[in-house]
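Minutes, structural biology subgroup

Action item carried over from last meeting: produce the structure token record for DUF4956 domain-containing protein (Brevibacillus fortis). EB confirmed the sequence was re-checked against the source entry. Recorded below for completeness.
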Amino acid sequence: MENTINFQDIIKKSVLRMDQFASISLIDTAIGLLLSGLLGLFIYFVYKKTFRGVVYTHTFNITLVAMAMLTCLIIMTISTNIVLSLGMVGALSIVRFRTAIKDPLDIVFMFWSISVGIATGAGVYPLSILGSLVVAATIFVLSKRQMRDIAYLFIINYHDQANDGVKYQLNKLKYTLKSKTVSKEMVELIVEVKIKGDNTAFVQDMSEVEGVKNVSLVSYDGDYAP
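Output recorded by EB:
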């Protein structure tokens, strides 16, 4: 008499065996969580040192550390059982990240943190360490390169009679006109200027032009809606 094995028997014998949860030892779990936490702190350090936005968010940076550890824990959990992995994928699919991302580079750090958690959770420790070092070096090099030529918004409020003096001072700079508002006897000019280091002497020169009422120099990240 031939033995017949149906689909239900396969599930019971191979997939739903609860002893599969013991395939990961406590030592492997501790190593994975410790390494993901250390790499998360490394990401924390890189984010803090390379942040070039307007407002630094400490809680977002802490989230990067926790995200690496939690992702590692999830990968370790779902790797022990096929059914559990499918159920967790379905549960996580309903999660939505609804917080607005102000800086596109923040998305890179989020994916970096998740990738570290996946690699450490899967036990591919060399990949997570080497990959983090390469990503960090790339971010440091590119962010340092950008700092050599920083963009600012130069806002000038002046009377009509100061028009020639303002143009003379602006011709000394590399600038791009962003907005010009003309009202009764007053003009507001907004230009983008790129300077190196702390060379802001042109602000004082512009403020000394006769007829200039007010000047402001604002940090600028490249996005502007007039």
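Discussion: Residues 7-146 form one domain.
Next step: EB to file the record with the rest of the batch.
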